[in-house]
Amino acid sequence: MKTKNTLIAVGLALGLAGYSLPAFAQDSGEPDKAAIEKSFPSKRPYSPYAGRPFPARVYWGDTHLHTSYSMDAGAFGARLGPKDAYVFAKGNEITASSGQRVKLSRPLDFLVVADHSDGMGFFPMLLSGSQAVLNDPQGKKWYEMIQSGDHQGSRGGERSRPFHRLHRLRVDVEYRRQQPAPQRHFP
Q1: What's the whole-model pTM score?
Q2: How far is Cα 112 from Cα 119, in angstroms, rounded to an integer?
Q3: The pLDDT of residue 8
Q4: Which 3-state string (H, E, C) describes 14-66?
Q5: Which of 98-107, 117-126, 136-145 has the lowest mean pLDDT?
Q6: Distance of alpha carbon 45 from alpha carbon 61, whole angstroms
Q7: Max Cα distance, the chain (Å)
Q8: Could you tell me which of 41, 174, 162 has the C-alpha nearest to residue 117?
Q9: Where in the chain are the domains?
Q10: Tell me: the pLDDT tens digits for 56-73?
Q11: What is the DSSP letter of 1?
């Protein structure tokens, strides 16, 4: 018991001694202004933008745009493809999916076409009545529903197998065809 109390006392004394160490620090006084200026000569800062309260080069664009090549956008009425999106982003006039002529007040500095890889290009094939789609019974059913305006059968449940079977018809070819589009429009 005596050894335990001794260890506690020694530990407490060392701990308190550690808190008193800053008391031994000395004040070196005020620095000499001439020595500071000699050590750090005043010159233009390394970064010319340091101290600016505003951005000097602002870019405007869209970081997430879906075209008719994405199943969700195509299903909700988008009829323009990636090429149309880039032409529009560059400030050119195009005809929108609604049939109206549209043009931006100024071109975008950048555009990211973020079409989904699942089903890429399937919706344009479906709308055009591609024979590859019409040869499949589900593809033919969807095509006829869209042509008739009857969208009652599109409530889900029947999507997975036929959709994935049909979207493979075009995904690889479409991806390779669209890959260079951004470089052609925004070099």
Answers
A1: 0.54
A2: 19
A3: 73
A4: HHHHHHHHHHHCCCCCCCCHHHHHHHCCCCCCCCCCCCCCCCCCCCCEEEEEC
A5: 117-126
A6: 32
A7: 97
A8: 174
A9: 61-185
A10: 788 999 999 999 988 888
A11: -
